[in-house]
Amino acid sequence: MASIAFIGLGNMGGPMAKNLVAAGHDVTVFDLVPEACADLAQAGAAVAASAAEAATGKEYVVSMLPAGKHVAQLYLGDSGLLAQLDSSVTLLDCSTIDAATAREVGEAAAALNIGFMDTPVSGGVAAAAAGTLAFMCGGSAATFERAKPVLAGMGKNIFHAGPAGAGQVAKGCNNMLLAIHMLGTCEALEMGARNGLDPKVLSEIMLASSGRNWSLEVYNPWPGVMENAPASKDYKPGFMVDLMVKDLGLALEIAEASGVENQLGKLAGERFREHQGAGNGRRDFSSILQLLQEEA
Ligand code: NAD
Known about the structure:
By secondary structure, the chain is α/β, with parallel strands linked by helices. The protein has 13 helices and nine strands. The chain folds into two domains: 3-163, NAD(P)-binding Rossmann-like Domain (Rossmann fold, 3-Layer(aba) Sandwich); 169-294, N-(1-d-carboxylethyl)-l-norvaline Dehydrogenase, domain 2.
Protein backbone atom coordinates (compact mmCIF):
# COMPACT_ATOMS: atom_id res chain seq x y z
CA MET A 1 0.00 0.00 0.00
CA ALA A 2 1.18 3.52 -0.78
CA SER A 3 1.66 6.73 1.16
CA ILE A 4 -0.55 9.39 -0.43
CA ALA A 5 -1.15 13.11 0.16
CA PHE A 6 -4.63 14.18 -0.97
CA ILE A 7 -5.21 17.91 -1.57
CA GLY A 8 -8.76 19.28 -2.10
CA LEU A 9 -11.56 17.52 -0.24
CA GLY A 10 -14.69 18.98 -1.85
CA ASN A 11 -17.72 17.21 -3.32
CA MET A 12 -15.47 14.96 -5.41
CA GLY A 13 -12.16 14.90 -3.49
CA GLY A 14 -13.78 14.02 -0.14
CA PRO A 15 -15.28 10.68 -1.25
CA MET A 16 -12.26 9.91 -3.46
CA ALA A 17 -9.89 10.32 -0.49
CA LYS A 18 -12.18 8.14 1.64
CA ASN A 19 -11.97 5.38 -0.96
CA LEU A 20 -8.17 5.52 -0.84
CA VAL A 21 -8.31 5.14 2.95
CA ALA A 22 -10.77 2.24 2.56
CA ALA A 23 -8.41 0.60 0.04
CA GLY A 24 -5.77 0.48 2.79
CA HIS A 25 -3.49 3.34 1.68
CA ASP A 26 -1.74 5.60 4.16
CA VAL A 27 -3.53 8.90 3.39
CA THR A 28 -2.67 12.41 4.63
CA VAL A 29 -5.06 15.19 3.62
CA PHE A 30 -5.16 18.96 3.31
CA ASP A 31 -7.97 21.37 2.39
CA LEU A 32 -8.45 25.08 3.10
CA VAL A 33 -11.75 24.17 4.81
CA PRO A 34 -11.09 22.62 8.27
CA GLU A 35 -14.46 20.80 8.33
CA ALA A 36 -13.50 18.89 5.18
CA CYS A 37 -10.26 17.75 6.86
CA ALA A 38 -12.12 16.77 10.04
CA ASP A 39 -14.49 14.60 7.98
CA LEU A 40 -11.52 12.72 6.49
CA ALA A 41 -9.88 12.39 9.92
CA GLN A 42 -13.03 10.56 11.03
CA ALA A 43 -12.63 8.23 8.07
CA GLY A 44 -9.07 7.39 9.16
CA ALA A 45 -6.83 9.88 7.32
CA ALA A 46 -4.07 11.98 8.89
CA VAL A 47 -4.52 15.76 8.57
CA ALA A 48 -1.67 18.13 7.67
CA ALA A 49 -1.47 21.90 8.24
CA SER A 50 -0.49 22.67 4.63
CA ALA A 51 -0.24 21.03 1.22
CA ALA A 52 3.58 20.99 1.51
CA GLU A 53 3.43 19.29 4.89
CA ALA A 54 0.97 16.70 3.55
CA ALA A 55 3.14 15.97 0.50
CA THR A 56 6.60 15.80 2.08
CA GLY A 57 8.00 12.27 2.01
CA LYS A 58 4.94 10.74 0.31
CA GLU A 59 5.05 8.44 -2.72
CA TYR A 60 2.03 10.12 -4.34
CA VAL A 61 0.23 13.46 -4.31
CA VAL A 62 -3.36 13.47 -5.58
CA SER A 63 -5.10 16.83 -6.09
CA MET A 64 -8.77 17.60 -6.80
CA LEU A 65 -9.15 21.38 -7.08
CA PRO A 66 -11.64 23.77 -8.72
CA ALA A 67 -9.66 25.27 -11.63
CA GLY A 68 -6.31 25.77 -13.38
CA LYS A 69 -5.23 28.70 -11.21
CA HIS A 70 -5.52 26.55 -8.05
CA VAL A 71 -3.51 23.74 -9.67
CA ALA A 72 -0.80 26.17 -10.87
CA GLN A 73 -0.61 27.66 -7.40
CA LEU A 74 -0.29 24.22 -5.77
CA TYR A 75 2.50 22.92 -8.01
CA LEU A 76 4.37 25.89 -9.56
CA GLY A 77 6.41 28.84 -8.26
CA ASP A 78 8.81 29.18 -5.33
CA SER A 79 6.27 27.95 -2.79
CA GLY A 80 4.75 25.27 -5.08
CA LEU A 81 5.20 21.55 -4.49
CA LEU A 82 7.57 21.06 -7.45
CA ALA A 83 10.11 23.32 -5.72
CA GLN A 84 9.86 21.29 -2.54
CA LEU A 85 9.64 17.63 -3.60
CA ASP A 86 12.15 15.24 -5.19
CA SER A 87 11.84 12.80 -8.07
CA SER A 88 10.65 9.92 -5.87
CA VAL A 89 7.12 11.39 -5.83
CA THR A 90 4.35 10.86 -8.44
CA LEU A 91 1.86 13.73 -8.87
CA LEU A 92 -1.71 13.07 -10.05
CA ASP A 93 -4.02 16.00 -10.69
CA CYS A 94 -7.63 14.82 -11.02
CA SER A 95 -9.10 18.35 -11.36
CA THR A 96 -10.84 19.45 -14.58
CA ILE A 97 -8.67 22.36 -15.77
CA ASP A 98 -7.44 23.99 -18.97
CA ALA A 99 -5.13 21.80 -21.03
CA ALA A 100 -2.53 24.61 -21.24
CA THR A 101 -2.01 24.67 -17.45
CA ALA A 102 -1.89 20.86 -17.31
CA ARG A 103 0.84 20.88 -20.00
CA GLU A 104 2.74 23.66 -18.19
CA VAL A 105 2.78 21.76 -14.89
CA GLY A 106 3.61 18.48 -16.70
CA GLU A 107 6.55 20.07 -18.50
CA ALA A 108 7.85 21.82 -15.35
CA ALA A 109 7.68 18.48 -13.51
CA ALA A 110 9.43 16.62 -16.34
CA ALA A 111 12.28 19.15 -16.26
CA LEU A 112 12.85 18.13 -12.61
CA ASN A 113 12.45 14.43 -13.46
CA ILE A 114 9.24 14.32 -11.40
CA GLY A 115 6.34 12.24 -12.77
CA PHE A 116 3.14 14.27 -13.22
CA MET A 117 -0.15 13.25 -14.86
CA ASP A 118 -3.34 15.15 -15.54
CA THR A 119 -5.98 12.59 -14.59
CA PRO A 120 -9.41 14.27 -14.90
CA VAL A 121 -12.44 12.11 -14.23
CA SER A 122 -15.75 11.27 -15.81
CA GLY A 123 -18.59 10.49 -13.43
CA GLY A 124 -19.97 12.79 -10.77
CA VAL A 125 -20.27 12.71 -6.98
CA ALA A 126 -22.12 9.37 -6.98
CA ALA A 127 -19.34 7.69 -9.00
CA ALA A 128 -16.72 9.30 -6.74
CA ALA A 129 -18.45 7.79 -3.70
CA ALA A 130 -18.95 4.40 -5.36
CA GLY A 131 -15.33 4.27 -6.59
CA THR A 132 -16.45 3.88 -10.20
CA LEU A 133 -14.93 7.01 -11.81
CA ALA A 134 -13.30 6.85 -15.24
CA PHE A 135 -9.82 8.44 -15.39
CA MET A 136 -8.35 10.00 -18.56
CA CYS A 137 -4.61 10.34 -18.09
CA GLY A 138 -2.00 12.58 -19.72
CA GLY A 139 1.69 11.90 -19.04
CA SER A 140 4.47 9.40 -19.69
CA ALA A 141 3.94 5.63 -19.91
CA ALA A 142 6.12 5.13 -16.81
CA THR A 143 4.06 7.61 -14.75
CA PHE A 144 0.87 5.95 -16.00
CA GLU A 145 2.06 2.56 -14.73
CA ARG A 146 2.90 4.08 -11.32
CA ALA A 147 -0.47 5.88 -11.20
CA LYS A 148 -2.65 2.86 -11.98
CA PRO A 149 -2.72 1.16 -8.54
CA VAL A 150 -3.69 4.45 -6.85
CA LEU A 151 -6.31 5.41 -9.43
CA ALA A 152 -7.74 1.87 -9.20
CA GLY A 153 -8.67 2.68 -5.60
CA MET A 154 -11.01 5.43 -6.86
CA GLY A 155 -12.27 4.27 -10.24
CA LYS A 156 -12.72 1.39 -12.61
CA ASN A 157 -11.86 2.58 -16.14
CA ILE A 158 -8.36 4.02 -16.41
CA PHE A 159 -7.20 5.25 -19.82
CA HIS A 160 -3.81 6.54 -20.96
CA ALA A 161 -4.87 9.28 -23.40
CA GLY A 162 -1.35 10.50 -24.34
CA PRO A 163 1.30 13.00 -23.10
CA ALA A 164 0.83 15.81 -20.55
CA GLY A 165 -2.47 17.65 -21.16
CA ALA A 166 -4.01 14.75 -23.10
CA GLY A 167 -6.27 13.80 -20.19
CA GLN A 168 -7.78 17.29 -20.20
CA VAL A 169 -8.19 17.21 -23.99
CA ALA A 170 -10.00 13.84 -23.75
CA LYS A 171 -12.27 15.22 -21.03
CA GLY A 172 -13.03 18.32 -23.14
CA CYS A 173 -13.88 16.17 -26.19
CA ASN A 174 -16.14 13.89 -24.14
CA ASN A 175 -18.06 16.61 -22.34
CA MET A 176 -18.55 18.70 -25.47
CA LEU A 177 -20.05 15.62 -27.16
CA LEU A 178 -22.20 14.96 -24.08
CA ALA A 179 -23.60 18.52 -24.23
CA ILE A 180 -24.35 18.15 -27.95
CA HIS A 181 -26.14 14.80 -27.70
CA MET A 182 -28.11 15.90 -24.66
CA LEU A 183 -29.29 19.01 -26.54
CA GLY A 184 -30.06 16.94 -29.64
CA THR A 185 -31.99 14.40 -27.58
CA CYS A 186 -34.04 17.22 -25.97
CA GLU A 187 -34.80 18.74 -29.39
CA ALA A 188 -35.95 15.39 -30.80
CA LEU A 189 -38.16 14.58 -27.79
CA GLU A 190 -39.71 18.06 -27.74
CA MET A 191 -40.40 17.97 -31.49
CA GLY A 192 -42.04 14.55 -31.14
CA ALA A 193 -44.14 15.65 -28.17
CA ARG A 194 -45.36 18.76 -29.99
CA ASN A 195 -46.51 16.47 -32.79
CA GLY A 196 -48.53 14.32 -30.44
CA LEU A 197 -46.03 11.52 -29.72
CA ASP A 198 -45.59 10.08 -26.24
CA PRO A 199 -41.95 10.86 -25.22
CA LYS A 200 -41.65 7.42 -23.61
CA VAL A 201 -42.69 5.64 -26.81
CA LEU A 202 -40.51 7.95 -28.92
CA SER A 203 -37.57 7.21 -26.58
CA GLU A 204 -38.10 3.46 -27.09
CA ILE A 205 -38.23 3.95 -30.88
CA MET A 206 -35.01 5.98 -30.97
CA LEU A 207 -33.27 3.60 -28.55
CA ALA A 208 -33.93 0.77 -30.99
CA SER A 209 -32.93 2.97 -33.96
CA SER A 210 -29.91 4.96 -35.09
CA GLY A 211 -30.63 7.94 -32.79
CA ARG A 212 -29.56 5.84 -29.82
CA ASN A 213 -27.12 7.64 -27.50
CA TRP A 214 -26.07 7.81 -23.82
CA SER A 215 -28.47 10.66 -22.92
CA LEU A 216 -31.37 8.56 -24.18
CA GLU A 217 -30.05 5.30 -22.80
CA VAL A 218 -29.26 6.15 -19.18
CA TYR A 219 -30.16 9.81 -18.57
CA ASN A 220 -33.46 10.51 -20.34
CA PRO A 221 -34.17 14.29 -19.97
CA TRP A 222 -37.98 13.93 -20.13
CA PRO A 223 -39.57 13.73 -16.61
CA GLY A 224 -41.16 10.37 -15.89
CA VAL A 225 -39.61 8.41 -18.75
CA MET A 226 -36.79 7.01 -16.61
CA GLU A 227 -37.51 6.63 -12.92
CA ASN A 228 -33.97 7.23 -11.61
CA ALA A 229 -32.86 9.97 -14.00
CA PRO A 230 -32.50 13.54 -12.59
CA ALA A 231 -35.39 14.61 -14.88
CA SER A 232 -37.74 12.48 -12.76
CA LYS A 233 -36.40 14.10 -9.56
CA ASP A 234 -37.11 17.73 -10.46
CA TYR A 235 -33.68 17.92 -12.14
CA LYS A 236 -31.78 17.57 -8.88
CA PRO A 237 -28.12 16.97 -9.93
CA GLY A 238 -26.54 14.71 -11.14
CA PHE A 239 -24.26 16.95 -13.13
CA MET A 240 -24.90 20.66 -12.66
CA VAL A 241 -25.41 23.18 -15.46
CA ASP A 242 -22.61 25.28 -13.85
CA LEU A 243 -20.13 22.43 -14.34
CA MET A 244 -21.27 21.80 -17.93
CA VAL A 245 -20.76 25.50 -18.72
CA LYS A 246 -17.27 25.31 -17.19
CA ASP A 247 -16.39 22.17 -19.18
CA LEU A 248 -17.72 23.61 -22.46
CA GLY A 249 -15.61 26.73 -21.89
CA LEU A 250 -12.52 24.53 -21.46
CA ALA A 251 -13.43 22.47 -24.56
CA LEU A 252 -13.80 25.62 -26.65
CA GLU A 253 -10.41 26.90 -25.42
CA ILE A 254 -8.92 23.64 -26.72
CA ALA A 255 -10.76 24.05 -30.04
CA GLU A 256 -9.56 27.63 -30.45
CA ALA A 257 -5.95 26.78 -29.56
CA SER A 258 -5.96 24.00 -32.15
CA GLY A 259 -7.78 25.94 -34.92
CA VAL A 260 -10.92 23.76 -34.93
CA GLU A 261 -14.22 25.50 -35.69
CA ASN A 262 -16.62 23.25 -33.65
CA GLN A 263 -19.84 25.09 -34.50
CA LEU A 264 -22.04 22.61 -32.62
CA GLY A 265 -19.81 22.83 -29.53
CA LYS A 266 -20.03 26.64 -29.63
CA LEU A 267 -23.81 26.54 -30.02
CA ALA A 268 -24.10 24.09 -27.11
CA GLY A 269 -21.98 26.49 -25.02
CA GLU A 270 -24.32 29.39 -25.86
CA ARG A 271 -27.45 27.37 -25.03
CA PHE A 272 -26.14 26.10 -21.68
CA ARG A 273 -24.92 29.62 -20.72
CA GLU A 274 -28.36 31.00 -21.55
CA HIS A 275 -29.96 28.34 -19.34
CA GLN A 276 -27.46 29.07 -16.56
CA GLY A 277 -28.17 32.82 -16.84
CA ALA A 278 -31.87 32.14 -16.21
CA GLY A 279 -31.02 30.84 -12.73
CA ASN A 280 -30.56 27.12 -13.49
CA GLY A 281 -26.84 26.79 -12.71
CA ARG A 282 -27.28 24.40 -9.81
CA ARG A 283 -29.87 22.19 -11.54
CA ASP A 284 -29.04 19.06 -13.51
CA PHE A 285 -27.79 19.74 -17.06
CA SER A 286 -30.62 17.65 -18.57
CA SER A 287 -32.98 20.50 -17.50
CA ILE A 288 -31.83 22.18 -20.75
CA LEU A 289 -35.07 20.57 -22.07
CA GLN A 290 -36.97 23.32 -20.25
CA LEU A 291 -35.11 26.01 -22.21
CA LEU A 292 -36.59 24.54 -25.39
CA GLN A 293 -40.03 24.19 -23.83
CA GLU A 294 -40.03 27.80 -22.64
CA GLU A 295 -39.41 28.87 -26.23
CA ALA A 296 -42.62 27.16 -27.36
P1 NAD B 1 -15.54 21.63 -4.76
O1 NAD B 1 -15.59 23.10 -4.92
O2 NAD B 1 -16.63 20.91 -4.02
O3 NAD B 1 -14.15 21.21 -4.04
C1 NAD B 1 -12.92 21.85 -4.23
C2 NAD B 1 -12.15 21.78 -2.91
O4 NAD B 1 -10.83 22.29 -3.11
C3 NAD B 1 -12.79 22.63 -1.80
O5 NAD B 1 -12.99 21.82 -0.65
C4 NAD B 1 -11.78 23.73 -1.56
O6 NAD B 1 -11.73 24.18 -0.21
C5 NAD B 1 -10.49 23.03 -1.96
N1 NAD B 1 -9.38 23.93 -2.29
C6 NAD B 1 -9.39 24.98 -3.13
N2 NAD B 1 -8.15 25.54 -3.19
C7 NAD B 1 -7.36 24.80 -2.38
C8 NAD B 1 -5.98 24.85 -2.03
N3 NAD B 1 -5.18 25.80 -2.52
N4 NAD B 1 -5.51 23.95 -1.16
C9 NAD B 1 -6.33 22.99 -0.64
N5 NAD B 1 -7.63 22.88 -0.93
C10 NAD B 1 -8.15 23.78 -1.79
O7 NAD B 1 -15.39 21.03 -6.23
P2 NAD B 1 -15.69 19.53 -6.73
O8 NAD B 1 -17.11 19.42 -7.16
O9 NAD B 1 -15.12 18.57 -5.75
O10 NAD B 1 -14.83 19.51 -8.08
C11 NAD B 1 -13.41 19.39 -8.07
C12 NAD B 1 -12.92 19.24 -9.49
O11 NAD B 1 -13.54 18.08 -10.07
C13 NAD B 1 -13.29 20.42 -10.40
O12 NAD B 1 -12.19 20.67 -11.25
C14 NAD B 1 -14.51 19.91 -11.17
O13 NAD B 1 -14.65 20.54 -12.43
C15 NAD B 1 -14.18 18.43 -11.29
N6 NAD B 1 -15.34 17.55 -11.46
C16 NAD B 1 -16.46 17.70 -10.70
C17 NAD B 1 -17.54 16.84 -10.87
C18 NAD B 1 -18.79 16.98 -10.02
O14 NAD B 1 -19.82 16.36 -10.38
N7 NAD B 1 -18.75 17.74 -8.92
C19 NAD B 1 -17.48 15.82 -11.82
C20 NAD B 1 -16.30 15.66 -12.59
C21 NAD B 1 -15.24 16.54 -12.38
